[in-house]
């Protein structure tokens, strides 16, 4: 199934005529996760023809407005469309206090519950999982509490070789155990090793979102070997002093993090509106990490396994 990232917004604090504030949708094996929800997010979701009804898990990294000001409008639209699935929001705990009065105003008509899950800003934490996907939050280094998110497939079972099912007359009841690593004992007592009976499953795919943050080496251990890394690059090195002052990263910082984590691919975004072109960001990042792409609003990036 698909594992791909769609950029809805790649600007920083203020939108431009070409870039919306931060928002992304990750399609992870048919699960659609909204990551941040800047102003205009719902317009971008419609433009990219992503079904509103597919989204009921929303991850808000921190409480700067360019990362959540689109949330109440999106919730209102969910309601107007007649959606009934509960909405789960993973965010700083204060977000509930901020938008609860607006939710109360809609309460008479709201067809679903909005359920808040507070983030942990002290250590990595598993915040969501189902049979196929797990999501881990981890603290970033910003001017206010901020979390990154790691989305990772769960390890699939091994594939059993069909020809050996027939050859060794393996009962259906034992196939599941073999897929999970068990050997098989034939009727004559012969032990058939699992390594002969199966082929290994593919390596789980993973995607990490790191915005907003200064360069922060401790996160490398959490997202080590990630297939696709999105890391903010608000400035280039010429504005290093301003990056340090505002707890943001440069394109060079993002590239250093990609190299440190042994990422497969890097997407840089959260570009300051000071810049009219993104080429300086790419040129800077690619001096350290050649497999760097720039975030483009409306573009979808497949998450590919590291070579």
Folded structure, characterized:
The protein is α/β, with parallel strands linked by helices and 307 residues long. It folds into two domains: 251 residues, 4-Layer Sandwich (Metallo-beta-lactamase, Chain A), CATH 3.60.15.10; 41 residues, no CATH class. It contains ten helices and 18 strands. Strand 14, helix 7 and strand 15 form a beta-alpha-beta unit. Helix 9 packs parallel to helix 10. The longest helix is centred in the N-terminal third of the chain and has 13 residues. The two termini are 19 Å apart. GO terms for molecular function: 3'-tRNA processing endoribonuclease activity; zinc ion binding.
Q: What's the quick description here?
A:
This protein has helices at 41-47, 71-80, 94-106, 162-167, 172-179, 194-197, 219-222, 240-246, 251-261, 279-286, and strands at residues 3-9, 23-28, 31-37, 55-59, 87-91, 114-118, 125-129, 133-139, 147-153, 159-160, 184-185, 191-192, 198-199, 206-210, 228-232, 265-269, 292-294, 300-302. With 307 residues, the chain is of the alpha/beta class.
């Amino acid at each position: 199934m698909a594992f791909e990232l769609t950029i809805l917004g790649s600007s920083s604090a203020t939108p431009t005529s070409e870039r919306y504030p931060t928002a992304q949708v990750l399609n992870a094996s048919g699960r659609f996760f909204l990551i941040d929800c800047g102003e205009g997010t719902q317009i971008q979701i419609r433009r990219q023809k992503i079904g509103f009804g597919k989204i009921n898990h929303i991850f808000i990294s921190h409480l700067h407005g360019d990362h959540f000001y689109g949330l109440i409008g999106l919730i209102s639209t969910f309601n107007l469309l007649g959606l009934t699935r509960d909405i789960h929001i993973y965010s700083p705990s204060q977000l509930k206090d901020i938008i609860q009065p607006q939710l109360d105003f809609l309460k008479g008509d709201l067809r679903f519950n909005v359920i808040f899950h507070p983030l942990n800003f002290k250590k990595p934490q598993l915040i969501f999982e189902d049979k196929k996907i797990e999501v881990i939050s981890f603290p970033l280094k910003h001017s206010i509490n901020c979390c990154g998110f790691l989305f990772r497939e769960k390890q699939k079972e091994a594939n059993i070789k069909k020809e050996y099912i027939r050859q060794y007359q393996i009962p259906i009841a034992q196939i599941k155990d073999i897929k999970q690593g068990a050997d098989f004992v034939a009727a004559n007592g012969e032990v058939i090793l699992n390594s002969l009976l199966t082929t290994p499953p593919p390596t789980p795919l993973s995607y990490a979102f790191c915005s907003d943050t200064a360069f922060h080496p401790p996160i490398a251990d959490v997202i080590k070997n990630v297939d696709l890394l999105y890391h903010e690059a608000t400035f280039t090195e010429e504005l290093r002093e301003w990056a340090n002052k505002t707890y943001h990263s440069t394109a060079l910082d993002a590239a250093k993090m990609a190299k440190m984590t042994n990422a497969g691919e890097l997407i840089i975004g959260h570009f300051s509106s000071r810049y009219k072109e993104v080429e300086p960001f790419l040129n800077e990042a690619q001096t350290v990490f050649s497999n760097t792409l720039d975030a483009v609003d409306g573009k979808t990036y497949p998450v590919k396994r590291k070579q």
